Amino acid sequence: MESIVVFCGSSEGTNEQYAKDAFRLGETLAKANIKLVYGGARIGIMGQVASGVLAENGKVLGVIPEFLMKKEVFHPNLTELIITQDMHERKLKMHELSDGILMLPGGYGTLEEFFEMLTWAQLGLHQFPIGVLNTSGFYDSLLQMMTHMVNQGFVKQENYDMILVAESIDELLTKMENYKSLPVPKWLTKEQI
User: Fold this and answer.
1) Sign for the pseudo-dihedral over CA of 181, 114, 84, 94
2) Which of 50, 47, 44 has its CA nearest to residue 9?
3) Which residues fall within 8 angstroms of residue 112, CB to CB, at 6 or more apart?
């Protein structure tokens, strides 16, 4: 992987470990020469992961919609900042600029971005590894719900298995580097991809 898009919160949450892991993830990405693609803010978990990359002289590409420039307070020291018209353009641009997807703790926006990318993978629109850094068990309940969806016949086991989960940054990045994607669904044509 040359670049990873990281979806995460614009808040730091109530557990200081979330921010610590975000910063350490940034440092780890920079040391591995992996460019960070993210939402462009200097606040919350978003700001921590970017600051971690920058602390190790890594590359950070922020993508932020114009209306969030003031609300999320864009990070002033990024390698590059792309301003989009809206959230949809932001997600598409992040997707175009990355070859891996990683989710840290966050709220509704984080989940929305993650699930859209996961859905695109399920449909065969990309074959990127999709990782979840489950800091302090933050996503345990979500993963349990997703297992319930499999058990109830709404998600195929193979689609659930696309999600790579670890509490350790190094373990997660290793899983992502070694990921073998599913074949593109037969009901999709080459032109649709």
Assistant:
1) negative
2) 44
3) none
